[in-house]
Every structure is written in C-alpha cells, then in structure tokens.
Amino acid sequence: MSFASEIKNELCKNESDKNQLRLLCMGAVFAMNEDDGKLSFRTECRKAADYIEQSMTQIKIPCKKSSIDIRGKTLYSVELSKEHISPDFPDCSDDDAFGIFLRGVFLVCGGAGDPEKGYQLEIFLHTEEKCRKLLSMIEEHGMSAKLSWRRGSSFLYIKESEKISDILTFMGAMMQAMEIMNIKIFKEVRNNVNRSVNCEAANLNKTVAAANIQADDIEYIFSTRGRGYLSEELLQVADIRLENRELSLSDIGAMLEPPISRSGVNHRLKKISDIAGKLRAEDSRKE
Questions:
Q1: Cα–Cα distance for residue pair 259/250, rounded to 1 Å
Q2: Residue 218 lies in a domain
Q3: Is the dihedral of CA 262, 267, 271, 276 positive or negative?
Q4: What is the pTM of this model?
Q5: Domain containing 203: what range?
Q6: Which residue from 68, 126, 130, 244 lies 20 to 30 Å from 229 (Cα-Cα)?
Q7: Cα–Cα distance measured from residue 68 to residue 46, given in angstroms and rounded to the nearest whole number
Q8: Could you report the average pLDDT of every consecutive run of 10 residues in the chain (287 residues)?
Q9: Number of CB atoms found within 10 A of residue 158's CB
Q10: DSSP letter assigned to residue 88
Q11: Alpha-carbon gap, residue 162 to 184, rounded angstroms
C-alpha cells in the first residue's frame, strides 16, 4: 500500500457530525473535476471513494460510485451533479473547520511520496485559481505550501518533513505524521552512524598510510646500517611501529616503558624519518 493510501485510510477513520460531514464534502467538491455540470474524481484508494460517497449520502447529496480497471489497476470514481451543491463557500476561518475541509480535499486529490525515499506531499487541484485559493487558506492557518505546474495542471506541494507532518496532523492523520518524524529520526541516526564510521575509516587509512612510510624508513635504516644505528629510545618506537602498523601514536606511547605522550612518539618517529632521509641522500651520492 502506498503512503498516500495509508494517509487516506487514516483520514477515513475520523468520526464526524453532520456539520463536519458538510465541511468534508465541500472540501471534496472543491477538489473535484468539473465537466458539463458534473463533478467527479478518481482514486486508487477504495476506502477514500467509499468514505466520500457515504459522507455525501449522509448529508443528502445524491452521488454515484463506480470502478474501472485500467492497465491492471482498479480506479474508483464518485460522480455527482453540480445542481445538488450549494454555491456558498463554507466558513473555514476556524482551524478545526479548515482541517476537516482540507481532509476532504486531500481524500479527492492528495498524494504523498514514500518518506523512506524522500519527503513530498502534493494536492492536485488542476486550476491555478483553486490552487491559489487553497494556498491562501493554508497560509491563513499558519502553514505553508508552494504552487507549481505539471503537464498543464496546477498543484500545491510541500517537501519539508516537518511541514508535511504539521499538515497531516492538521487534517487528522496523526499516525502518519508520527511515521514521517520517526523515519526522519531514523535517517538522521543512520546518517550520523555512517558519517562516524566513514570518519573512523578515513582516520584509520591515514594512520596506516603514515605507518607504512614510517616502517619503510625504519627498514631502510636496519637494512643499510643495522639496528644499532638507532639510540635505545628510538629503537623502542621503531620496533613497536614495525610490529603494529595499525596502532595510533597514542597507542604506541602507551606501550613504551615508561609511557610517553602522542607528541613524544611523533617527535621520535620524525627523528627516525630525518635519519632515513639523510642516509638515503648519502647512499645516493655514493652511487
């Protein structure tokens, strides 16, 4: 089941009295397509079609529900005559009233992407006039959306997870609003873990790369001048580095007797590197 269908299924569970049903139906009517005096909409969500039809019936608005199979999908439609609809626009100044009105709109023409893949909620009202009217109402109630066009039709959209969660809560889909926030939290934790792992891996790679260079210097000194060429304190560090290339400088310092700091280990390894560099230069001149 798509996330949009899950939202609509939750919205259909809201109990409503006659005044609330009227607001819901007016929202649905506002979102429907108009053609030759007929109002209609199609949806893949059977529950949404059933709920709108039942709500219309309860407030004495005659309508007809039907279904059709297209390319392996069943689409459900609800149709009614415009003559049965009051021309007066409902008063949606109250937050609760507009929430119910917006619920009716979304059941007819709302959509939402899978929050696991991205955050996107859309309301397809087709005409720019309707989009601007609904956008103005949304903004009056402290929320926001953006207007866009696709294939000649106007629609409103929201891409921010918090704003989608807010408008779902406003319409009455609290469970799906919570689901979006839970997914966002999970993504943030997962991303933080990945960043931490990547950072540790990068640091380990740097440590190993530096250790390999240090080991090459030590092996050059041992092979050309012997172990006795290094002082005792440098030899201690050299032996640990050769045997433990994955260790950090702090770890090497802790293994020495007596232990020394990270900067102390770095200083000794730099001395070894300087000695190896001078020996290589001398050997190069002899060739």
A1: 10
A2: yes
A3: positive
A4: 0.70
A5: 195-286
A6: 244
A7: 12
A8: 89 82 93 88 91 91 88 88 81 91 94 90 91 94 92 89 93 91 87 84 80 89 89 90 87 90 92 90 80
A9: 23
A10: S
A11: 9
